[in-house]
Amino acid sequence: MTARPVLASDSAPRLAPHTRLRHDAMRGVWTVQAPERTFMLDDTAHAVLAHCDGATTLNGIVDRLCDAFPGAPRATIAADVAAMLQDLADKGVILA
Amino acid sequence: MSSAALPEPPLAVLAELTHRCPLQCPYCSNPLELEKVGEEMDTADWRRAIRQAAQIGCLQIHFSGGEPTVRQDLEVLVAEATQAGLYTNLITSGVSCDRARLDRLAAAGLEHVQISFQDSTAEIGDRIGGAAGAHAKKLVFARHVRDAGLALTANFVVHRQNLHHLDAMLELAVELGAGRVEIANVQYYGWALKNRAALMPTREQLAQMVETIETARIRLKGLLAIDFVTPDYYAKRPKACMGGWGRRFLNISPSGNVLPCHAAETITSLAFDNVRERSLQDIWQNSDAFRAFRGTDWMPEPCRTCDRKEVDWGGCRCQAFALTGDARQTDPACALSDSHDMLVSVADGEAHARDVRFLYRNYKNGARRQVRPAAVPQPG
Asked: Which terminal Cβ of chain B has fewer Cβ within 10 Å, N or C?
């Protein structure tokens, strides 16, 4: 058996296979579609997941969000992003 | 919610393409009066219904049955759903689809396959499914699903006759490469209600089951998502059935009847509209069956003044009807229901029943039985 995927600062997370980031025009929200599950994303969650391309590292994602949200301290953004992505990894939505 | 307001759009549609099935599980969620092949909607009807489901807001479609792969047009319907922007799930027994067909379904856009298992072993699984050799075919098909690169869920319906294998079921799910497992306690409507005395778990099994699931969730975190449906006969509060009547989901029967849940036709006091005659949007927004128990305005006491009424939405209407004869009653699974004590005594009594034979789910056993509320024995 493989081990639980744990995110590190040099992980390059990406959406798991057959997990889709989709815009729902009727409701005006971004969603993640996964096996028999729908996640409705707020703007922050979408901003994070939009960078999960399998090439950008966790550090890189935090850099980009710091650029996008210049008012927030980097340490806060880094902690929030890491917690959110680890939770999504544990749910099978992203691969670390 | 005001009864005049338009409802929120649905999130998902369950398309029950057929009631034909190679298995005969005694807890099947299909109605006792199974629809025959001649009553099924044709390809054009289903394609239109699928497009309409996407247009009114559905994001996912679950192709189910019966066994959906007995429909020769499944590839066409998966392609239609994919083109309409729906995320596609196939809910299958896994015994009647070969690798070539699976590849065609994947090419049509299929994302995810859920395979039902009746046990972790062939011996018990084949007996419960009433189909010799079925378990071995499921194992082969599960490997095809992974080899084809599709997402896999293993579904185990659990009850008194297989709960001693719960650990092995979880191990099998991991071994098969499933990203997700459903451990679903039997829900007692229709066929399962007929077989309740053969299936009801004991309280000892319940305690062991909860402990096994809690331990496994820690041990398998990040490796296997575990969805657990608790047995509500031993619950204190009811489940939020379907996330609330007419709030999130709709179900289309093989002949095109549009239902708030797959068991809704057991409520014989309701009439259902058909998607061949009315648009899905009209049915979702305006049909009597969907409006009957949508929101909270319909609720009697104790639900009406309960602070959980928008948490559990009054529980399950089908269960209320099956056990009290009145679909408006509080779900007897709720400890605040007048019928709760009777429910508990039924569970405690039937959990220790001996030598109860299954009434297997098939056309012969269903045709000669009427759908009517089961009597709840009075205490004493």
From this structure: C
Smallest Cα distance from B12 to chain A, Å: 9
For B6-48, write each residue's pLDDT tens digit. Answer: 899 999 999 999 999 999 999 999 999 999 999 999 999 999 9
Chain B hits for A34, Cβ within 8 Å: 87, 151
- Residue B303's closest CA among B266, B269, B338? B338
Residue B120 has a CB neighbour count (10 Å cut-off) of: 22
| Residue at A13 is within a domain | no
Interface test with B, best of A1, A7, A18 (most B CBs within 10 A): A18
Predicted model pTM = 0.93
Number of domains within chain A: 1
Determine whether the interchain pair B150/A91 forms a contact, defined as Cβ–Cβ distance below 8 Å.
Answer: no
What is the DSSP annotation of A63-80? HHHHHH-TTS-HHHHHHH
The minimum CA-CA distance between B202 and chain A, rounded to whole Å, is 30
Note whether residue A55 is domain-resident.
yes
Are B43 and B76 in contact by the 8 Å Cβ rule? The answer is yes
